TrEMBL record:
<keyword id="KW-0808">Transferase</keyword>
<protein>
    <submittedName>
        <fullName>N-acetylglucosaminyldiphosphoundecaprenol N-acetyl-beta-D-mannosaminyltransferase</fullName>
    </submittedName>
</protein>
<dbReference type="InterPro" id="IPR004629">
    <property type="entry name" value="WecG_TagA_CpsF"/>
</dbReference>
<dbReference type="Pfam" id="PF03808">
    <property type="entry name" value="Glyco_tran_WecG"/>
</dbReference>
<feature type="region of interest" description="Disordered">
    <location>
        <begin position="26"/>
        <end position="47"/>
    </location>
</feature>
<keyword id="KW-0328">Glycosyltransferase</keyword>
């Protein structure tokens, strides 16, 4: 089972979840509802970040930037509010960072997915800082936070389907969930082929498999913008699960990729840690594409001032 440190007061305005230790115990055991484990691994695994109690937990959109509304509350509240939304199709939760904002200005399909999302969070620290500079209450809510809550503090009996980037990731995350107490029949995985987003026949087959599994939680771990676009295109064919588009967080949860130490996360330097692990893959994103973000911030500020 998962032994989870209790949530405790840091001061009269903030709460913090303690670190946890995960180990195999009696079959069928699950983390207690409402507990808050991290899905990082190793000595540098991070606890849930400190959250301001004054921020309403997903009960309303609290932040407006780049023509979109973002939820201000912590992961638990955002997921609870999303679960209460009635829908004929999937309820997609997206986690915005600098690269997403740039992509939204270039990719119409990605923008439509964001517009249709049930909830949007601020994953990248630059977005959190920007919101705070504007006087808006903001806390970072990452894909790691959402995934930890959804998998280990979610409703009992949920049925999970994980779309993974590699076979090794799919095998590892499924094994971890089963060892933590999930019924093996309640966890399904797949690794889609390259180009699956535009493969109509494959999309229909995968959507049918997800729906027939009785999926209540769909986790997309193939990265942006593919995850968000594919889910939005499939729509009601998927059923009505909550969908987390969390990319790399699935690889971390599987124990195959390290997450940045907590000190780097709090300093807004998690990107530097990720770049050190995958410099070729991330160089263009961080050192070429990211400069467009500055122009988009300026445009957004002008539009905001004009509307005031």
């Amino acid at each position: 089972m998962l032994e989870v440190g209790a949530v405790h007061l840091v001061d009269d305005r903030t709460v913090k979840a303690a670190r946890f230790d995960a180990r195999v115990a009696s079959p069928g055991a699950r983390a207690a509802p409402g507990t808050n484990p991290s899905l990082g691994h190793g000595p540098d695994a991070a606890p849930e970040p400190i959250m301001d109690r004054g921020i309403e937990a997903g009960t309303a959109w609290g932040i407006r930037m780049f023509g979109l509304d973002f939820a201000a509350g912590p992961a638990a509240g955002i997921l609870a509010a999303t679960a209460l939304q009635s829908s004929d199709g999937p309820r997609l939760v997206v986690t915005a960072n600098m690269d997403h904002i740039v992509l939204l200005s270039e990719n119409d399909a990605f923008r439509r997915a964001y517009d249709a999302a049930a909830a949007r969070t601020l994953d990248g620290m630059p977005l959190v800082w920007l919101a705070r500079l504007r006087g808006q209450p903001a806390a970072r809510v990452t894909g790691h936070d959402l995934l930890a809550h959804a998998l280990f503090a979610g409703p009992a009996g949920q049925r999970v389907f994980l779309v993974c980037s590699k076979d090794a990731v799919a095998d590892a995350i499924r094994d971890r969930l089963v060892r933590s107490g999930y019924d093996p029949a309640a966890v399904a995985t797949c690794v889609p082929p390259f180009g699956f987003v535009d493969d109509v026949e494959y999309g229909c087959a995968l959507s049918a498999r997800i729906r027939e599994h009785g999926t209540t939680l769909l986790v997309m771990g193939v990265g942006a913008p593919r995850s968000e676009i594919w889910v939005t295109r499939q729509g009601a064919a998927l059923g009505t699960p909550i969908v987390l588009a969390v990319g790399e967080a699935v690889n971390v949860a599987a124990g195959l990729v390290r997450r940045a130490p907590i000190v780097l996360q709090r300093a807004g330097l998690e990107w530097a840690f990720r770049f050190a692990l995958s410099p070729r893959r991330l160089f263009h994103r961080y050192f070429v594409r990211s400069w467009r973000f500055i122009a988009l911030v300026r445009r957004d500020l002008k539009e905001r001032d004009a509307a005031a």
